[in-house]
Structure formats: structure tokens, C-alpha cells
Amino acid sequence: MLATAADCFSRYGYAGSSIDRIARKAGVTKGSIYYHFRDKEDLLAATVLDRIAEFEQRVQASCDGLAADEALRRIAHVCQDHAMSKDHPRFLIMLMIESIDTNQQVSDQLRSTMRGFRRFLAGLVRRGQQQELFRADVDPERVASAYTSAVLGAEIQYYQDPDSFCMDDALGHYIDTLLVSLNGVRTDSLQENGENR
Amino acid sequence: MLATAADCFSRYGYAGSSIDRIARKAGVTKGSIYYHFRDKEDLLAATVLDRIAEFEQRVQASCDGLAADEALRRIAHVCQDHAMSKDHPRFLIMLMIESIDTNQQVSDQLRSTMRGFRRFLAGLVRRGQQQELFRADVDPERVASAYTSAVLGAEIQYYQDPDSFCMDDALGHYIDTLLVSLNGVRTDSLQENGENR
Questions:
Q1: For a designed S-S bond to A42, which of A37, A102, B35, B161 qualifies (C-beta 3.0 to 4.6 A apart)?
Q2: Interchain proximity A169–B145, CB inside 8 Å
């Protein structure tokens, strides 16, 4: 049911997805939806929570046991797979934009999801710094903000123009330059000088 | 009038902006709007063209006479100023998302705008390569895709969460890593070896 709801919201927007339409698509009665959810806003909130939980589990599972640099590369792949899958990929992003001025509850949920994603990335960078995999003079929060921008912006361009925008190129180039900046230049020159050994 | 229309579409979405509402806000009669525009879709298309032209002029003017690396830094500032201005910044981005499945004409306009922006950036990178400011083994199209992602993703996070997302940090970090990757490493080592002198 929540998957069908996500499908409807994703395809017709919030305004275009009546409880009636969702019930019909899901092959259930309107009554059974109202049994579980107070109203359409309540159903939307549950749908969002369900999709967020799925995405967060996927991200976390994907970098279990990986070194920080491999994890940063892996997460970009997970986001890309997610964007290119048939699994309502646009749903959360469309909603993130649409809900900014219109739906406080959903807007709050998505804001806290994005904060969590950035916090998770900053934690990865910090871990990489503690393990001396990444140079120490980089601000983990700045990396997390730029990383999230790169992923989000690539997803949107891909949804908008799958024929001319290559998500793999955009994310690949971003991750390559990021990893060079995190562990390349300064670390190498320090190592040559023997300063961090 | 087009500015008021942009303001309405930006605030209430396409569905929530009746010709009636726009006419009232602009202080004109419905008749005078219908004199110039066939219907609401036609008015929206004109509004989009007007905003796009304004943004493109700003970007192009901003990097007149600048070297390619300075131009890449400057454009990020222009995008940031644009996003943080009171000048209907969300309008084009909200619409880009909303129109994907719903409005072919506007969707086509915005798709071609994004293609133009990426082409402009790729041209800058190519110019930097010809002037031996940037290393030659970087694909200008990949840079353009990643750059556009970084800007777009930063704008959206800023609209969603201005209190916790620092656009300046996100774009600053991205541009710094990009410029290092474009002209830093390889060029330096070539120069040390005297190969490109």
C-alpha cells in the first residue's frame, strides 16, 4: 500500500493523488485507508518515512566495513542506483521541493533526513582523518555539504534530462576530484617530507 | 507583470496560481492578461523565458574578460547570489522539478536551459585547456556535469534548510577541489619536469 501511495504521489503530485485514486490503484477500499491513516497528509507522512527508512538502510549497509575513501565512493553508487531504479526514485526529491512551502510535517521530515545524511558523511570524513587516510586540514562539514549537493544536483539533472545528462560522469568526476583533494596533494607532500610519519 | 507571475508561480505552484490571482496581485484585469497570453500555460512559458534570459545574461556578463579559472569561481558566486536574492530564486528550480511530468513546453525550455548552462561551462574548461591553464586530460563535459550538479544541489539544500545548510561552504569547497584538480597536481609535476615549457 505505501509503495502504491509513493507511486501515486510521485507520478501525480500531492494535489493530484486523491485517497480515492490511491485506494483504486492499490486495490483496497477507501475505508481501509482511513482505518490506518487520519487523512491524506497522514498517509503522505507515513509514505515518506517508509521511503526514507529504506534509503537510509541501503546507504548504511553499503559502507559496512569499508574504509572511509571506499565508503565515499560506494555511497555515490548507491545514490545513483537509487536514482536510476524503478523504485519511485523521484518521490522524495520532488516532494522535498514541493513541500517546502506547503506541508510543514513532510518538510520537517525531509529536512531532518538531509541533515542526517550530511551528518553521516561528515562522520565518515572525520573517521578517515582519524585513521590518517584523509588530510587533517579539511572541514568534514564542508565536504558533507558539497558531497550532498553533488549527489542531489546529479539526480535532478538525470530526472530532467536522462538523454543528455550522464549521472555516472557527473558523480564519477566529483568523487575523483574529492578523493584527490582529501588524500592526494597535501598528504603526499607531507609524506615526502616525513612530517606525518 | 511577468515578475508578479513568477512570484505567484513560485509561491503557490502552477496549480495554485489562477489567472485571477495573478491579475489581482499585479493590479491588472484578467482581460488584459488574456489580451497578451492565450492561457495560463502560455503565461507560464513567457515567465520562464523571461527569468531564464535574465539569469543567462547575468552569468555571461559576470565572466566577461576573466580567465577560465576565475570565471568558474565567479559563476558559482553568481548562482549563489541568485539563490539568496529575493528575486524569485526558487521559481525556476521548483518548476524544473514540477514540470518534468506535467508540462511539456516548460519542461523542454528548462531542459534546453540546463543543456546550455553545461555547454557554456564545458566551453570555459576547453578554453582553459587551450590556454594551458587547465590540464589537458580532463573531460570538459564531465566537469560541466559535476559543476552543474554542485550548484543545483546546493541551491536546493539552501531552499530546504537555510538555517543548517551553508551554501557558501558547499560551493566554496567544491570550487576549491575542482580548481586543484584542474590545474593543480598534474600541471605542477609537468612544470617541475619542464615538459610543458
A1: A37
A2: yes
Q: Do B176 and A181 touch (CB under 8 A)?
A: yes
Q: Are A159 and B131 in contact (CB under 8 A)?
A: no
> How many contacts (CB atoms, under 8 Å) link A and B?
168
Sort A197 into a burial class: Cβ within 10 Å, 0-12 / 13-18 / 19+.
exposed
Give ipTM to 2 decimals.
0.85
pLDDT (tens digit, 9 = 90+) per residue, B144-190? 999 999 999 999 999 899 999 999 999 999 999 999 999 864 434 44
Q: In sequence order, which residues have a C-beta less than 8 Å from that of residue B185 and are 6 or more positions away? A: A180, A184, A185, B135
- Confidence at A190, pLDDT banded by 50, 70, 90: very low
Q: Dihedral, CA atoms, A125, A82, A100, B58, nearest 10 degrees? A: 80
Q: Of the candidates B92, B2, B98, which has an alpha carbon nearest to the alpha carbon of residue B43?
A: B2
CA distances from A116 to A72, A134, A148, B103 (A): 15, 22, 11, 33
**Residue B104's pLDDT band (cuts 50, 70, 90):** confident
- Cβ-based contacts of B114 with chain A (< 8 Å): 157, 160-161, 165
Record the cell numbers describing residue A25, joined without a space: 490503484
Give how far Cα B111 sits from Cα of B61, B115, B142, Å: 22, 6, 18
A157 with B171: Cβ contact below 8 A: no
pTM to 2 decimal places: 0.86
* Domain spans in chain A, listed from the N-terminal domain onward: 2-182
Q: Residues of A with CB below 8 A from B166's CB?
A: 141, 145
CATH code reported for the domain at A2-182: 1.10.357.10
Q: How far is CA B197 from the centre of its chain?
A: 37
